[in-house]
Amino acid sequence: MHPDIERIVRCDESARAIVANARRESDEIIREAKEEAETIKLSVKSEIDAYKEKELKKILEEAKKKAAKKQKEAEEYVKKLRDRASQRAAEVEKEFMDLMLKSLT
Predict the structure, then answer these.
(1) Residue ranges in the chain modelled with pLDDT below 70
(2) Which residues of 17-42 are buried (b: 16+ CB within 10 A; e: fewer)?
C-alpha cells in the first residue's frame, strides 16, 4: 500500500477512535449530569414536602384553636339558655300557682 494512503487510513482510524472516545466521554458526562439532577430533584422534593408538612401542621393547629374557642362559646351560650329557661320555668310555675290560688279564693 502506498505510504500516503496508509497514513490517511491510520489518521482515519485514529479519528474514529477519537470520536468514539469522545462519544463515550460525553455519554458518561450526560449520565452523571442526569444522576446529579435526579439527586437534586429528590432533595428539593423532600425539602418541599417537609415545608408543606410544617405549614400544614401550623394551619391545623390554628384551626383546632379556633374550633375549641367556638365550641367553648357555644357551650357558654347553651348554658345561658338553659339557665334562662330554668329561671323562666320557675317564674311561670309561680305565676301559675298564684293564678290557681286566686281562683280558689
Answers:
(1) 1
(2) eeeeeeeeeeeeeeeeeeeeeeeeee
